[in-house]
């Protein structure tokens, strides 16, 4: 019978005892732990072992001693029960099962992730968990809440995906099974629980003024729990086939450029003509930009306020809209204000004429449609104002 591991109360007592030992020596727990590491390295060097081998040897001895003490305690209880004439209750299985459920499962980062955990992570990454960006160890990561992941695991979409043939998704029947499925992520180091920390804690300088609102700086917590309001951060980025494909394309492009002298003559001539054509278009564009600037400088003094060729050329519009209209007058602040005032006046008149009777509404609509058309015929071309 394997001896059960220490419960949370025993772990807390061990931590308190460790802190007390450090306080006796006038050191902080971190300094005391560092001193113990140095002593451990020295002891391992005396035995001709590495620190990892020496730690494994000490753990094996401690586990063996703990198991012997547990077996001796069980034998003592059996002997006492037989002496008192009481039969020992034969229910060790539930007690052992209870110990196994409460015992923390060790996580070995060297082991490969569980295929079921990878399947759950891939499925959750495809769902809308409303992730937010956070900073962990100086890197940007995606963070999500536990309640949204549990809700997605309990959804019919997960049940449908788990019911497919050759699916690695574990089945979910109730809330407890959904939490057990979610616990596969931290066990395989695919997602870990984090909490918000102040990156400037312990510093004497003031907080920066240009801090991004809502961008948390987080740290990994030791206890991985599944409270609905807790936050987890993704350490699993999903399948890397896209990154690999892009890297392969970049390498292939570099090889193609390096091996350009070995290309067939037809391909090399085509690339040469294409490059000459692109350079010609680029030169034509710069020539047009210089010509329109010279034309504007001349017309500013001759025909004020100045004429622009392709006034929307450098505006934030589409490619074809950059060449519309062909020309336009330079707009001043007064013209912009007058255009805005006219637009407001036209909108106000349209609102006032709306509640009129049917015949008058028809007449006014005809007049308003004819008036702008006449105004458009009399207006000269002007630069369009792009409002964001």
UniProtKB/TrEMBL annotation:
InterPro entries: Sec62, Sec62_asco. GO terms for cellular component: endoplasmic reticulum membrane. The keyword Transcription regulation does not apply. NCBIfam families: sec62. Residues 1-39, 67-117, 346-388 are annotated as: Disordered. The chain crosses the membrane at residues 245-263. Pfam families: Sec62. GO terms for biological process: post-translational protein targeting to membrane, translocation. Keywords: Endoplasmic reticulum, Membrane, Protein transport, Translocation, Transmembrane, Transmembrane helix, Transport. This is Translocation protein SEC62. It is a multi-pass membrane protein. It is found in: Endoplasmic reticulum membrane. Belongs to the SEC62 family. It comes from the Eukaryota.
């Amino acid at each position: 019978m394997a001896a059960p591991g220490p419960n949370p109360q025993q772990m807390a007592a061990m931590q308190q005892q460790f802190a007390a030992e450090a306080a006796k020596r006038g050191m902080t727990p971190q300094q005391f732990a560092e001193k113990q590491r140095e002593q451990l390295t020295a002891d391992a060097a005396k035995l001709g072992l590495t620190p990892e081998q020496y730690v494994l040897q000490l753990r094996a001895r401690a586990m063996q001693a703990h198991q012997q003490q547990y077996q001796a305690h069980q034998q003592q209880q059996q002997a006492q029960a037989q002496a008192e004439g009481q039969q020992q209750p034969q229910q060790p299985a539930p007690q052992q099962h209870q110990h196994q459920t409460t015992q923390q499962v060790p996580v070995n980062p060297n082991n490969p992730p569980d295929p079921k955990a990878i399947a759950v992570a891939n499925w959750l990454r495809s769902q809308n968990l409303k992730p937010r960006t956070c900073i962990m160890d100086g890197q940007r990561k995606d963070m999500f809440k536990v309640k949204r992941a549990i809700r997605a695991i309990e959804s019919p979409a997960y049940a449908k995906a788990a019911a497919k043939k050759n699916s690695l998704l574990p089945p979910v029947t109730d809330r407890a099974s959904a939490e057990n499925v979610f616990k596969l992520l931290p066990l395989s180091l695919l997602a870990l629980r984090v909490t918000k920390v102040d990156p400037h804690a312990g510093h004497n300088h003031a907080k920066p003024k240009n801090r991004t609102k809502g961008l948390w700086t987080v740290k990994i917590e030791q206890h991985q729990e599944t409270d609905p309001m807790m936050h987890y951060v993704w350490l699993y980025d999903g399948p890397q086939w896209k990154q690999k494909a892009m890297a392969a394309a970049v390498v292939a492009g570099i090889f193609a450029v390096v091996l350009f002298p070995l290309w067939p003559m037809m391909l090399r001539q085509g690339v040469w003509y294409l490059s000459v054509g692109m350079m010609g278009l680029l030169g034509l564009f710069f020539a047009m930009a210089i010509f329109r600037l010279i034309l504007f400088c001349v017309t500013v003094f001759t025909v004020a306020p100045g004429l622009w060729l392709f006034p929307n050329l450098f505006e934030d519009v589409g490619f074809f809209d950059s060449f519309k209209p062909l020309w336009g007058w330079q707009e001043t602040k007064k013209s912009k204000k007058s255009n805005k005032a006219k637009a407001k006046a036209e909108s106000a008149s349209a609102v006032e004429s709306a509640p009129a009777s049917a015949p008058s509404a028809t007449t006014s609509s005809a007049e308003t449609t004819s008036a702008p058309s006449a105004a458009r015929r009399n207006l000269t071309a002007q630069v369009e104002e792009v409002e964001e």
